[in-house]
């Protein structure tokens, strides 16, 4: 920091002539006053500048693309892959049950209505229909619950990471923004684009990359509860 100061111009002093030696005491008094005024101005100027605030006023704001982190963070991607694999297995079992039901229904049509065999096959078909219906509901319910838990803990991770980064950088507010680019050939991206809450942000305010790096470092750490109960590792 550069210090600037301005010293007051000293008063013009006239040396007394030898013929006016009686004015010497008065001249010395004036000189002493001028010197005190000149030297006394330095501490005041310096202390005034040293007392000036050095911190910046206002609030610091950052943004993070939560959706991007959810889609690209390795830990979350691994869990999403597992969820999709489980869903595919359940869908395969459900399809096998549908095929069995279809075959049973075809056999039922070949039987004579009212016969004992028809009654037994009709009961079998009804049982298969009930099982298919229950498994279909259970499949969707299980997937929804698993995805909800995944996104819940994933979001808590992002919040925890954002808090750490914001605290270290003296950031007061972190906003969620959508960094997806609009594609004129895909109407849904256009709709999401015009509905963005953040119209513009400077690239230096984006901490998405920092959040992903922080979470990558925490991926192999033992599960630790944060102050708000969020886990730093997702658990099924």
- CATH architectural arrangement of the largest domain: 2-Layer Sandwich
Strand order of the largest sheet: 1-2
Instruction: Kindly report the name of the CATH homologous superfamily of the largest domain.
Output: Skp domain
Q: What fraction strand?
A: under 5%
| Secondary-structure element pattern, one letter each | HEHHHEHH
Give the overall pLDDT as a whole number. Answer: 74
Distance between the termini: 55 Å
Q: What is the CATH class name of the largest domain?
A: Alpha Beta
Task: Give a nutshell description of this structure.
The chain is 61% helix and 3% strand.
Description:
This protein has 236 residues and is mainly alpha-helical. The chain has 2 domains: 1-54, no CATH class; 61-218, Skp domain (Protein Binding, DinI Protein, Chain A). Helices cover 61% and strands 3% of the residues. It is built from 6 helices and 2 strands. The protein has helices spanning 24-50, 66-72, 74-110, 116-168, 187-194, 208-218; strands at residues 61-64, 173-176. A two-stranded parallel ribbon has the order 1-2. It is elongated and about 85 Å long. The two termini are 55 Å apart. The model is unreliable at 1-15, 44-54 and 225-236 (pLDDT under 50).
């Amino acid at each position: 920091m550069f210090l600037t100061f301005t010293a007051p111009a000293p008063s013009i002093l006239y040396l007394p002539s030898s013929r006016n030696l009686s004015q010497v005491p008065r001249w010395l008094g004036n000189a002493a006053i001028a010197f005190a005024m000149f030297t006394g101005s330095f501490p005041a100027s310096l202390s005034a500048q040293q007392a000036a605030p050095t911190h910046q006023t206002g609030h610091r704001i950052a943004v993070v693309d939560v959706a991007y982190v959810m889609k690209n963070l390795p830990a979350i991607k691994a869990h999403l892959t597992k969820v999709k694999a489980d869903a595919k297995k359940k869908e395969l079992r459900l399809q096998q049950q549908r095929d069995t039901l279809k075959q049973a229904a075809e056999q039922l049509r070949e039987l004579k209505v009212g016969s004992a065999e028809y009654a037994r096959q009709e009961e079998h078909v009804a049982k298969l229909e009930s099982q298919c219906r229950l498994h279909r509901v259970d499949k969707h319910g299980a997937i929804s619950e698993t995805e909800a838990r995944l996104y819940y803990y994933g979001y808590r991770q992002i919040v925890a990471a954002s808090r750490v980064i914001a605290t270290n950088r003296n950031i007061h507010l972190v906003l969620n923004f959508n960094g997806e680019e609009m594609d004129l050939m895909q109407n849904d991206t256009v709709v999401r684009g015009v509905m963005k809450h953040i119209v513009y942000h400077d690239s230096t305010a984006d901490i998405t990359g920092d959040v992903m790096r922080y979470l990558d470092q925490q991926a192999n750490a033992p599960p630790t509860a944060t102050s708000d109960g969020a886990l730093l590792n997702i658990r099924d």
